Amino acid sequence: MEHTWRCAITVADLGEFGIIARIIGRLPQFPAVLLGPGDDAAVLRAPDGRIVVTTDLLLEGRHFRRDWSSPYDVGRKAAAQNLADVAAMGAAPTALVVGLGLPGDLPTDWLDGLTDGFRDECAPIGASVAGGDIVRSERIVLGVTALGDLGGRAPVTRSGARPGQVLAVAGRLGRAAAGLALFLAGRAGTSARFAELEDAHRRPSPPYACGPAAAALGATAMLDVSDGLLQDVGHIAEASGVRVEIDARTLSPDEPLAAAAAELGEDPLRWMLTGGEDHALAAVFPPEVRLPAEWQVVGRITEGEGVQVSGHEEAYGGWDHFRS
Amino acid sequence: MEHTWRCAITVADLGEFGIIARIIGRLPQFPAVLLGPGDDAAVLRAPDGRIVVTTDLLLEGRHFRRDWSSPYDVGRKAAAQNLADVAAMGAAPTALVVGLGLPGDLPTDWLDGLTDGFRDECAPIGASVAGGDIVRSERIVLGVTALGDLGGRAPVTRSGARPGQVLAVAGRLGRAAAGLALFLAGRAGTSARFAELEDAHRRPSPPYACGPAAAALGATAMLDVSDGLLQDVGHIAEASGVRVEIDARTLSPDEPLAAAAAELGEDPLRWMLTGGEDHALAAVFPPEVRLPAEWQVVGRITEGEGVQVSGHEEAYGGWDHFRS
C-alpha cells in the first residue's frame, strides 16, 4: 500500500506578486472600471459626478470562522455586507477594493475560493473587484471598501423619515441569526430543514436592486439591516427626530425559522427583530407610494422618539459591535 | 504621601457608537464631502466623472509598533501611504475611509491621537476622513482607503515610459529605512542627529502636490516608492516594456543618512535604493520637459528590460510584503 502525501501550495509559496497575479487572473473587470488592478490605484467611472463609498473590516474568529464557512462563503459575505451599504444609499454598486491580510500557510485553494466568492457576489450586479492590497497576517483580515453610483438621484440618508410615513422591509429578517444559533448550539447540519438558515449565516442575500428602486420610488430614509431591525431603525428614529412603530404582527416567521426556533427553544420574533447580518433593506416611504411586491410594510413613523414594537410584549435589544 | 491611581478610559467603555461619535467630533469635513460619517456610506464629489481609489491594510506588530510610534504617528503614516498612492496617479486626494480594529482595553487617548494623526495628514491637502467602520480586534488593524480627483487629466500609470525619457524622483529616499535600522539596532534616541531619520520611519512626508503637477507636466509613468526605488521602478520597467537605468552617482546621501550609515556600518546607498516607506514619487518624463526644483533626475529609460544601477558595484534587492 502506497501512501501519498499531498503538499498544499500555500500563499507564501506564491509570494506577494504571485498572489496578486493569481487573484487578478480570476476577476473580470466591468465597464465602470477605467483602470483595474495593478497600478498604485484604480480609476472608476463616477458618471453623475459623485461617488458613494463605504468600508468594513472583517476579522477571522470574530466575523467568520474557517471551520464554519468555506472561503467562497467568506468572500460572498464580505462583499455582500459592503455592497448592501451602497444599495442602502439608493446607489448601484460599481466596485470593491479589498485589503487582504493572509497567513503564510494559507493554502492557495483557500485564496482561490475567497476570490471566487468576491467575484460571484459582485458580477451578477455588474460590480468589479478593481484593486486591493496584500499583507501577511497571523489571522485572515479583510478590509473591504465598496463604491457605487447614485444615477443622478439624491442619496437616501437616515434623516428624512417624517410622521405619517410607512416603514417597509425588502429582503429577509432573522435567518442569519437563526443559522448562527444553530451553529452555536452545535446543531448545524443535523437537519435538511435548517440548511437554508445555515446558508443565510454563511452568506446573506441582500436585495441590492431594491435600493436604487426605493430611491426612485421616493424613499425618504433607508439603511441596511446589519445589527438587527430594532437597533437599525433606531438610527432612523434618531437621525430623523421621529418615532418608529414596528407592528410585530406583520413579522411572521416562515417555516424554517419557526422550526429552528422550536428546536432551540428560541423566540423566532427575537431573531427577526434583533438578528443582524441578513442585510435586508429597511426604508421609509410616503404613505401614497405604491410599493412593489419586494417591499413589506412593517410599521409606521409617528411623532416622538425611539422605536416601539407593538403586538408583542417582550423587550428586545440590539447589537453593539464593540461591547459584544 | 498620597498615591493617585489614574484609571484610563478605554474604547470599550465608550462602546461602538461612543467611539464613532468621539472620532467624528475631531474630524473636519471639506467641500468634496457631500455626505460625511454617520450613514451607511459617504457621498463624495467626483467632479470630472471619475474617481481614483486605493486601499491598504496596516497591522500592529507588522507595520507599526505601539512602543516605537505614537498613535498620532501611526495615523499620519497610515493616511500618508494611501494618499501618496492617489498622488502617484496624478490625482489630488479628496478623502479617506478607514476601518479600525481596536482592542477593547485601548485607552481613548490612543484613539484620539490616531484620529488627530489622520486629520493632520489629510487637512493640509484638503482631504477629509469621510467615513469608516469600528470592530473589536486583539491587535490594532487599520484598513485605509483613499480617493482622489484627476482634475480632468489622464491617470499616470506605470506603463507609459518610453526609451529616451528620464526618470526623476520627488521627495526623499532611504530616510525611513535608516530610521528603522536605528530602531532595530536599539540606537534610536541616542543622538539628536538621527531624530529626523527616526521621524521619517514614524511618518513619511510624501510630496503630494508633485503628483498632479507631474501629470500636468506630461509625466508618462509614475508610482510612489513604497518598497524601494529599485523594486518599484522595476514595475515601471515591466509594465512599460523598457529598461530603467538608475545612475547611482545622482543619489548622494545627505548628512544624517551618511552619519547613521557610518554609525551602523551600513551602506547609505542601499537604503536609498531599497528602502521603502518614504513614499517619494518616481516619475518618467519626456526629455524636453523642464522639471521644477522638486524633481531630481536619477536615471533614464532605454530599450530592454529590468533595472540597472550604474555607478555602483553592489547588487541590490527589493521588498516582498509577503515573504519578508
Annotate the secondary structure layout.
The structure is a homodimer of 324-residue chains.
Chain A: H1 11-24, E1 33-35, E2 42-45, E3 50-59, H2 71-87, E4 92-102, H3 108-122, E5 128-136, E6 141-149, E7 166-170, H4 175-184, H5 195-202, H6 210-217, E8 221-225, H7 229-240, E9 243-247, H8 255-264, H9 268-274, E10 280-285, E11 295-302, E12 307-310
Parallel strand pairs in A: 4-5, 9-12
Antiparallel strand pairs in A: 1-2, 3-6, 4-6, 7-10, 7-11, 8-10, 9-11
Helix pairs in contact in A: 1-3, 2-3, 4-5, 4-8
Report on this model:
Two copies of one chain form a homodimer. The first copy, chain A, has 324 residues and is an alpha+beta fold. The first copy, chain A, folds into two domains: 11-149, 60s Ribosomal Protein L30, Chain: A (2-Layer Sandwich); 166-310, PurM-like C-terminal domain (Phosphoribosyl-aminoimidazole Synthetase, Chain A, domain 2). Chain A has helices spanning 11-24, 71-87, 108-122, 175-184, 195-202, 210-217, 229-240, 255-264, 268-274, and strands spanning 33-35, 42-45, 50-59, 92-102, 128-136, 141-149, 166-170, 221-225, 243-247, 280-285, 295-302, 307-310. In chain A, the strands form three sheets. Chain A has a six-stranded mixed sheet. In chain A, strands 3-6-4-5 form a four-stranded mixed sheet, with helices on one face. In chain A, 56% of the residues are buried. At the A-B interface, helix 1, strand 2, strand 3, strand 4 and strand 5 of A face helix 1, strand 2, strand 3, strand 4 and strand 5 of B. Strand 2 of chain A pairs antiparallel with strand 3 of chain B, so a sheet runs across the interface. Chains A, B: Mg(2+) 2 binds at residues 56, 85. Chains A, B: It is an enzyme of class 2 (transferase). Chains A, B: Catalyzes the ATP-dependent phosphorylation of thiamine-monophosphate (TMP) to form thiamine-pyrophosphate (TPP), the active form of vitamin B1. Chains A, B: Mg(2+) 4 binds at residues 40, 54, 85.
